[in-house]
């Protein structure tokens, strides 16, 4: 138990920023090891590394440290987490089977089947991986990406999500850009496009290039459109500076052949 406490203190010292004077705590159910020759520390069994605004939980955490040439101080350069990884920041969470966090490049890569990022209102998943850049508050999702907002669903080959902190300090999704084979399902229809920009707060998606809007068989085609995920209303626009026109195909509803008799016909029957 004494060894665990000692290693916890050292781990916290290495991860702390002298300028910020912020401690990072690590806990594990089974053990925490210090490999001095490999300049590595390992925490096993429900391992948790946490600081004021972020925490990483996994079955096992490994951290490599190095000496900074400028100051001579030790600093964690890389963290590897595996087995049910959960990374939390504010009300946002990221999930995967493994995570590799390069602190020098300020980049964390999550792999899973799928990898996932969740906010109170939105969820993004990716079959390949999700890369998170903490200082830039940005996440890049690659490979059969799927996002949900209420009853609406967005599919794409890749997404770039930008986050921001509100007045209460909570992290929320500010903007999402989608690329390649974009498909949006709403309660009123389906929209396809080559790329688009999603604004979560407004529930608005702006779409560009090779767009098709299908609402109950009625179709519109063009190169600029907007879809409101809150109302389910989509509209096609003429792209500025182009001579292209919006085109559409509308299905006429079949009339009922058996119509009710008129008042005059009722009189004749009587």
Structure description:
- The chain is mainly β.
- The chain folds into 2 domains: 1-89, no CATH class; 107-250, Lipopolysaccharide (LPS) transport protein A like domain (lipopolysaccharide transport protein A fold).
- Helices cover 8% and strands 60% of the residues.
- It has helices spanning 2-15, 263-269; strands at residues 25-27, 31-35, 40-51, 54-67, 74-89, 92-102, 107-111, 115-118, 122-126, 129-133, 138-149, 152-165, 171-186, 189-199, 204-215, 218-228, 234-237, 247-249.
- A 6-stranded antiparallel barrel has the order 6-7-10-11-9-8.
- A hairpin with a 2-residue loop joins β13 and β14 (189-199).
- The protein is elongated, with a radius of gyration of 27 Å.
- The chain starts with a helix and ends with a helix.
- Mean pLDDT is 79; it is low at 1-22 and 265-270.
What topology does this entry show?
Layout: H1 2-15, E1 25-27, E2 31-35, E3 40-51, E4 54-67, E5 74-89, E6 92-102, E7 107-111, E8 115-118, E9 122-126, E10 129-133, E11 138-149, E12 152-165, E13 171-186, E14 189-199, E15 204-215, E16 218-228, E17 234-237, E18 247-249, H2 263-269
Antiparallel strand pairs: 1-3, 2-3, 3-4, 4-5, 5-6, 6-7, 6-8, 7-10, 8-9, 9-11, 10-11, 11-12, 12-13, 13-14, 14-15, 15-16, 16-17, 16-18
Spatial arrangement of strands, main beta sheet: 6-7-10-11-9-8
CATH topology of the largest domain: lipopolysaccharide transport protein A fold
* Major beta-sheet overview: 6 strands, antiparallel, barrel
Shape: elongated
CATH homologous superfamily label of the largest domain = Lipopolysaccharide (LPS) transport protein A like domain
Number of helices, where a helix is a run of at least 4 consecutive DSSP H or I residues: 2
Radius of gyration over all CA atoms, rounded: 27 Å
